[in-house]
Amino acid sequence: MRLSTLFLRTLREDPADAELPGHKLLVRAGYVRRAAPGIYSWLPLGLKVLRKVEDIVREEMDAIGGQELSFPALLPREPYEATGRWTEYGDNIFRLKDRKDGDYLLGPTHEEMFTLTVKDMYSSYKELPLTLYQIQTKYRDEARPRAGLLRGREFIMKDSYSFDVDDAGLEAAYQRHRAAYVKIFDRLGFDYVIVYADSGAMGGSASEEFLAVSPVGEDTFVRCEASGYAANVEAVVVPQAQPVDASAVPAAHVEDTPDSPTIDTLVTRSDALHPRADGRGWTAADTLKNVVVMLTHPDGSTEPLAIGLPGDREVDDKRLAAQVAPAEWAPFEEKDFAAYPMLTKGYIGPTMLGLESPSKIRYLLDPSVAEGSAWVTGADEHGKHVYDLVLGRDFTADGTVQAAEIREGDPSPDGAGPLTLARGIEMGHIFQLGRKYAEALDLKVLDENGKLVTVTMGSYGVGVSRAVAAVAEATHDEIGLCWPRELAPADVHVVATGKDRAVFDHAELLVGDLEASGLSVIFDDRPKVSPGVKFKDAELLGVPTIVVVGRGLEQGTVEIKDRRTGNRREVPVGRAVGEVL
Ligand code: ATP
Ligand code: MG
Ligand code: MG
Ligand code: MG
Q: Which residues form the signal peptide (predicted)?
């Protein structure tokens, strides 16, 4: 690649809409260009890096027996209707109509298409196990496309799907993918953690995420040094949650309950709640009663979710759930439960008020509620409102409510030690889907005994375009991008300086030698550009080794500079290739 002809324009100024340094640099260095919010064009250098990430992912998927294919991004509505995702995805999918008024969508992920294709082509256990994958463009109308490629509305994902006849087969396929992901993220050079993950809209059971440790990550995870336990905070889920019969829940408002506070005014804590000295929540005074967890629906309506005991009772929440009949829960009276059957099914342990880890909050959620937010309200004996926002976070459609504020130092669920918190970027996600999709779309095969059995599936994603951004974010410095060799758009950046024809001729020969020895080269052969500008551009582009051919030639040397460390040394021209290799 010669900079005199390469389709590249570097920028001195940061793009106005860029939030993160790595993103600013990718735009300034001419790797990508924004076309619309969350939608990017890949310019030649950017595409080279993207292809390198793809190659690593492809090699590791092939190594575990994955077979590559490619599905369209433009998909019919029906399969997504059959699995419920046409509506479940809400505003997050791009829907469109064709000229005959038919409904289509731009695929956010492809479980449905893979399942249907396998169903069409396979019919026997003998054809399984099977792993298929694609590296393909996905579309999600993200609410907050952010940080460029990190959260695109159009982005590139590797998605693979495993098909097995039994649970042991699925477990093996899952473990193969897990091992392949370890290799992929090692090769990409990430500092990453593997965390238990929430399975979200996918359903299914076992699920882990690969998070690149990064302060700019949108995910928060907890880790326990002692046991190695690590989980996305979203996944520190309380497993007891069970669906509540929605039809049994009257449309009630808390105002209907005489003892309960109204909830329309957000009143700050009264003296019934005392901040704890260690800053972790509040201690409730004896006088506090009627603690209610409120659910606010997206449309602004509210309903009570659970009630609890005053926070200073020394009661273990598990025992409370098992042994204390709801009717005994002070200070609610029987009539209150009659009015709110839902309330009888939930409770708040003392932890809610900060006596222990707030991660232990347990309650049940109406399964018809797909999203919302919750908060806690209560009243002391004088009828004052006591209020504080304890939960802030989303509910999942499967009826579980995720733990809220887990704090640094909280005990890990396995009891092995304290938790530490950090942020990460979700780079990959592996799921044991089970039979959810196969059942919905009727994917069955004949087993050894000639009986029809439903296939069990896994789904596995890697954010390929996100990886480019995450590497840029993790490796850049204040002067530019700083690629690891395996992902850099070239191995060497050769700069010819000055106006002397002989210098350019020598540089040309050196470039030829470097390429002949298998290295890829960016050659700054621009005749009328000052050395200062050339050096700045070389630093901005971030190729790991920079070779300067210039004044040193009179002594028969060139300068070799390491982009990351800034270390430079003069070496004889004849030894330059060997030094770079
Ligand atoms: P996130 O939590 O960041 O929204 P997700 O859990 O919705 O991601 P998955 O459905 O698990 O994403 O998709 C598999 C992988 O695709 C993710 O692990 C991530 O690396 C990548 N990915 C998801 N959404 C985006 C996006 N909007 N832009 C770029 N990459 C994405
Ligand atoms: Mg998402
Ligand atoms: Mg996620
Ligand atoms: Mg995910």
A: none
Residue 15 falls in which region: left (phi positive, over 0), alpha (psi -120 to 50) or beta: beta
**Nearest alpha carbon, ligand 1 atom 18:** 428
φ, ψ of residue 171 to 5 degrees: the values are -60, -40
List, as one string, the DSSP characters of 323-344. Answer: HS-GGGSTT--HHHHHH-GGGG
- Quick one: which of 362, 392, 397, 400 has its CA closest to 296? 392
Enumerate residues 6+ apart whose C-beta is below 8 A from 2. Answer: 523, 525
Q: Whose CA is nearest to atom 23 of ligand 1?
A: 463
- From the DSSP assignment, how many helices (H) and strands (E) are in the chain? 13, 28
Over the stretch 339-356, which tens digit does the pLDDT of each residue have?
333 332 233 332 233 222
pLDDT in tens, 391-403: 373 333 333 333 3
Q: What is the mean pLDDT of residues 59-84?
A: 97
Residue with CA nearest ligand 1 atom 4: 151
Judged against a pLDDT cut of 60, whether residue 381 lies above it is answered with no
Please report the pLDDT score of residue 236 as a whole number: 65
Q: How far is the CA of 223 from the centre of ligand 1 (A)?
A: 22
Question: ipTM of this model?
Answer: 0.99
**Closest ligand to the CA of 218:** 1
Closest CA to 42 of 57, 52, 31, 27: 31
Q: Measuring from atom 27 of ligand 1, which residue has the nearest CA? A: 151
**pLDDT tens, residue by residue, 297-319:** 556 555 444 444 433 333 333 33
Task: State in Å: Cα 159 to ligand 4 middle.
Answer: 11
Q: Residue 460, Cβ neighbours under 10 Å: how many?
A: 26
Q: Which atom of ligand 1 is nearest to the CA of 219?
A: 2
Residue with tokens 């590497």: 471
Ligand 1 shell residues, CB under 6 Å: 109, 140, 142, 151-152, 155, 157, 426-429, 461, 463, 465-466
Q: Which residues pair with 549 in a beta bridge?
A: 496
What is the 3-state composition of the chain as percent helix, strand, coil, each rounded to the nearest 5? 30, 30, 40
Nearest CA to ligand 1 atom 11: 429
Strand pairing report for 130-139 and 67-68: parallel
- What is the structure's pLDDT at 298? 52
Q: How far is residue 282's CA from residue 271's CA, in Å, rounded to a whole number?
A: 11
- Considering only the C-alpha atoms of the chain, give the largest distance between any 2 of them, rounded to a whole number of Å: 97
pLDDT-based confidence at residue 229 (cuts at 50, 70, 90): confident
Q: Report the residue among 181, 427, 466 best suited for mutation to probe ligand 1: largest number of ligand atoms under 8 A from its CB.
A: 466
Q: pLDDT value at position 416? A: 81
Indicate the range of 169-173, 207-211, 351-355, 490-494 predicted with least confidence: 351-355
